[in-house]
Amino acid sequence: HADIAMYRAKETGRNNFQFYTPTMNEHALERLRIEGDLRNALERDEFMLVYQPQVNLRTGQIVGMEALLRWQHPQLGMVPPQRFIGLAEETGMILPIGAWVIRTACAQNQAWQRAGLGTLRMSVNLSARQFSQQDLVQSIAAVLQETGMAPHLLEIELTESLVMTDVDHAIGVLRELKALGVLLSIDDFGTGYSSLSYLKRFPIDVLKIDQSFVRDITLDADDAAIAMLIISLAHSLKLEVIAEGVETDEQLAFLRQHDCDEIQGYLFSRAVPAQACEQMLRQGKCLPPQSAQDSDQPV
Ligand code: C2E
Ligand code: MG
Ligand code: MG
Ligand code: MG
After folding, report:
1. What are the mean pLDDT values of the chain's consecutive 10-residue runs (299 residues total)?
2. What residue stretches are annotated with the EAL domain (predicted)?
3. Cα–Cα distances in Å, from 256 out to 50, 154, 244, 261, 288?
4. Element holding 151 (H helix, E strand)
5. What distances in angstroms separate CA 283 from CA 117, 242, 277, 289, 290, one per listed residue?
6. Closest residue to atom 4 of ligand 1, CA basis
7. Given Cys at both, which of 148, 171, 215, 234 links 207, Cβ 3.0 to 4.6 Å?
8. Beta-strand pair 77-79/62-73
9. How confident is the model at residue 21, as a pLDDT?
10. Are 225 and 258 in contact (CB under 8 A)?
């Protein structure tokens, strides 16, 4: 195993091979360590979910939450998903972890509803391996049953590459999921390869404009054009559209002006632990009304 060979070479002091660089070694070590620790993280209860509000632009109110996975590593601290999801995917660990995510998110949503904090949508991200799992639909149905959550409140986020890899299979799975009554959205829309004709055939409900287009939406004419195109494409196909990564008032104003349905981003809130979400819901945190945003009057 190449990673281990490099590790040994370093250990015995024979670290002057031509291919050796400290960066590679550090990377390999981190990978080995994370892979090992990932196997025990679930039973050690080291995962947690944080939630990011999704806000309706017409009402200004929180209408949903996206559940985002965090790993509290005892030594490394908070490990972001980009550093372990890929590995979890390769090792298959994503299956039990993903199942935990769905169960925990649905249970949380039900708890909020029972506490009178509102009827919210809950979005969860699905990985490729989960999507091709035989009993995916059954296991989601079981979670809905167990938690008592209404199916139409669960939204499953998929990426373009995930549904475009095997289109016929994907359409079959998406139809089964739709039959359960859950909502389906395409995450990071515009960054992958997707054919417009398939988009029409997929039984999806929501497009999420990738944050890479939102970032310079008010500065870059191309990004603005792409965002506007996605909004009108979504509406033409009778889909909802939500913009990710909204950080500034200018981006918000642009999205309002161009009739985007919902936003998600640091401007309103980062992804935060359940308790902080509860506080937002109790306080009725919402966006300032549209008129104030669009007004030319000085404040
Ligand atoms: P994503 O699903 O596209 O989630 C959006 C990411 O953008 C989140 O990063 C979120 O914290 C971040 N974000 C939100 N608002 C802003 C903003 O205004 N500015 C900027 N710069 N970033 C913003 P996070 O939580 O680190 O997650 C990264 C990715 O990891 C997610 O992208 C998703 O693909 C994946 N992921 C997270 N949780 C899960 C999970 O439970 N299962 C799977 N399969 N993937 C997950
Ligand atoms: Mg997502
Ligand atoms: Mg995204
Ligand atoms: Mg992403």
Report:
1. 42 48 76 88 97 98 98 92 93 96 98 97 96 96 97 97 91 96 96 84 96 97 97 96 98 98 98 98 90 48
2. 31-285
3. 26, 25, 14, 8, 12
4. none
5. 10, 24, 10, 16, 20
6. 68
7. 234
8. antiparallel
9. 61
10. no
Task: Give the Cα separation of 44 and 56 in Å (integer).
Answer: 37
CA 187 to ligand 3 centroid distance, Å: 5
Non-local CB neighbours of 276 within 8 Å, separated by 6+ positions: none
Dihedral over alpha carbons 196, 197, 198, 204 (to 10 degrees):
70
Test site for ligand 1: of 79, 87, 244, most ligand atoms within 8 A of the Cβ:
244
As a whole number of angstroms, the distance between CA 38 and CA 47 comes to 10
Q: Residue 149's Cα: distance from chain center in Å?
A: 20
Spatial neighbors of 185 by CB under 8 A, at least 6 apart, are 123, 155, 156, 157, 158, 204, 205, 206, 207, 208, 242
Q: Which pLDDT value is given to residue 10?
A: 43
Ligand 1 centroid vs 12 CA: distance in angstroms? 40
Residue type, position 209, single letter: I
DSSP string, 69-134: EEEEETTTEEE-GGGTHHHHHHHSTHHHHHHHHHHHHHHHHHHHHHTTS---EEEEE--HHHHT-T
Residue 19: per-residue pLDDT:
54
DSSP H or E segment with residue 156: strand 154-159
Tell me the ipTM for this assembly.
0.97
pLDDT at position 31 is: 82
List CB-based neighbours of ion ligand 2 within 5 Å: 125, 157, 187
Helix, strand, coil abundance in the chain, percent, nearest 5: 50, 20, 30
**How much distance in Å is there from the Cα of 124 to the middle of ligand 4?**
12
Does residue 289 have its Cβ closer than 6 Å to ligand 1?
A: no
Query: From CA 130, how far away is CA 107, in angstroms rounded?
Result: 20
